[in-house]
Amino acid sequence: MIALVLAVIGAWFVSLFAGPAIYAAMGLAGFAFLAFAGIPGIVIPQKVAMAANSFPLLAAPLFILMGNLMNTGGISVRIFAFAKALVGWMRGGLCQANILGSVIFAGMSGSAVADAAGLGTVEIEAMKREGYDAETAGAITAASATIGPIIPPSLPMIVYGVTAETSIGALFLAGVIPGLLMAGALMLMVRHLAIRRNLPSHPFAGGAALWRAFKGAFWALMAPVVLFGGLFSGVFTPTEAAAVAVVYALVLGLFVYREFRWSDLPKVILDTVETTGVVMALVMCASLIGYCISVSRLPQEFGATLTSLTTNPIVYLLIVNALLLAVGCFMEALAAMLVLIPILVPVAVKLGIDPVQFGLVFVLNLMIGTVTPPVGVVLYVTAKVAQVPFDRMVRAILTYLLPLFAVLSLVTFWPALSTFLPGLLMGR
Q1: Domain boundaries along the sequence of the chain
Q2: pTM here?
Q3: What are the φ and ψ backbone dihedral angles of 258, each rounded to 5 degrees?
């Protein structure tokens, strides 16, 4: 059966280049395996329905809805204005504000695409007006958008937690320190490039201007505080936190900033349903593929092969890094997670790797994949927003990959970066 499942998955992977929807090709691959293996077709509705019937996964559409509400309600503009007032005086000030804005927005949306398409639109336009070339504006926007799914809340962390049966709360906490390190590393790179390229900066606008920007963004800045406060005080679960976040974003847009109208709600809901439909289709079809992989005993054989080669956790993590970075260049992140988690996580646990650390390594690799060609979805989004040809955007992003790889290396070799906060606050 291992040869059969490998042949089916290989055919599915090749078919992706023909352009069908990923979830459709994934579902057909699962159906083909069951048919050739002689397994009754009744398994298909059972497995896909079971995958969708998950309480933690309910957080995914709610966080997607919150991100759409934030973008429509004028919150993105206020976040960027505050970030600009805070760090705009530094060399390459708008690049620095771009990164800081992504850190703040990450605590609300949890999506790299939402960051790039929502906040990125504001950032790129402002940078162009200040004389930055479109490639620089798009590249730093794409690189900083990868912080979104690392700092909680995070849609990929939710998917990993559900699939790998790992605490979503612990995964959320694990992303805080690496996410801040990503921002710091990108800001150091920007400072170096700003000096070398003589990028513009502005004099500090003064305490009064900073205070005005802070007041304008105050309620938006409180969103992560509300989420984390309730989540880690035990008032609500991660899934319930997503519902609270939606209500909070709606109240901000309607009654505080008053830039969101009831007439905007149908479009926001339709956008959310469209995105959620794709995510759920991926989850359900990947559950079927996961069942096929499990029946074939591929994880057990793969694990035995790897553990015969090495029992060193660091060596295994390096292998996984190389694999995920390669996969991320060709495959959409959520689809890659749903296919590879059942194969890679059991081996990691067997080698004594903390599943929370492994989850962070997993997500960070695939987020870097969103800004690498040829299937870097965030890179495509920012190229479109910045109106830059994709090949020029690829060349521009290369420099900003270095700090991201540096943080990935730290997370790989230093488990405490991802396990310290969960251990401190959750006793793991």
Answers
A1: 54-426
A2: 0.77
A3: 55, 35
